[in-house]
Amino acid sequence: MQVELKSDERIDQLYRDDIQIIQSPSVFSFSLDSVLLANFAEVKKASKTKIVDFCSGNGAVGLFLSKKTAGHVTMVEIQSRLAEMAMRSIQLNDLTDRYDVYNMPLKDALTKINADSIDNIVCNPPYFEDLPSSKKNPNEHLALARHELTTSLEEVLQVSQKMLKMNGKLFLVHRPDRLPEILTKLVKNRLAPKRIQFAHSHAGDEANMVLIEAIKDGKPNGTRILPPIVIYEGLEYSKAIKELLYGNSTD
Q1: Distance, CA of 251 to CA of 238 (rounded, Å)
Q2: Angle (nearest 5°) at CA 20 between 40 and 108
Q3: CA contacts within 13 A on the Cβ side of 12
């Protein structure tokens, strides 16, 4: 389907899955953390599956899931420009029959989505706390995407716990330096951490991203630490990342 682009927009593509995303450098562009989260998420495949993408931005994570599930995906995004971009990307990929977007604060999502009704939630939230000492991007759109100005880790987990079915799964990408806080707040909100995977820019570097799977009312313990993801080999993407982005045909 053809869609109209604004003057500052372009269409980028995840070549492996032939998914097209409308991007704007002046508002928001998805980055590798979105691709890694969508790949990490083990969502249910059945058509009756209900999935929610919190803090969905321009819809990248939710759209990248479209080849992994036949279920229904609902995006929740507070910024109206991004929500509108996500809707046009849904149209661009001919997914309007099983995708929708709610342009609203995360805390209001339960007015549209029933409690205890969702199988899987994915979330690429703002990574940085809103502290007096925080240096925020002067671009309001980017500041909202990166700092906890309109939501917080606590709120993400509270809403996730209420919305998920028993044994439903939350998939989250975040910063490793907040991992102790994340794990504490997951347990506080009845979300048992089950899989953790770290991403590193280069082999030998400290991790700069962490992917976490948590299960609502899951049994304590049994947490698995997966092999790390290495993003670069020298100046190029590693073989694993090239496969995520372009498929197996790229050497």
Answers
A1: 10
A2: 65
A3: 20
CA distance 60 to 155: 22
pLDDT tens, residue by residue, 33-82 = 999 999 999 999 999 999 999 999 999 999 999 999 999 999 999 999 99
| Spatial CA neighbour of 229 closest among 248, 250, 205, 247 | 205
Task: State if pTM tops 0.90.
Answer: yes
Q: Show contacts of 103-107: CB within 8 Å, 24+ apart.
A: 103/77, 103/78, 103/79, 104/76, 104/78, 105/78, 105/150, 105/151, 106/54, 106/55, 106/76, 106/78, 106/150, 106/151, 106/155, 106/156, 106/159, 107/151, 107/155, 107/159
Burial of 150 (0-12, 13-18, 19+ CB in 10 A): middle
Residues 6+ apart with CB under 8 A from 11: 5, 20, 21, 22, 23, 92
Q: How far apart are the first and last CA of the chain?
A: 31
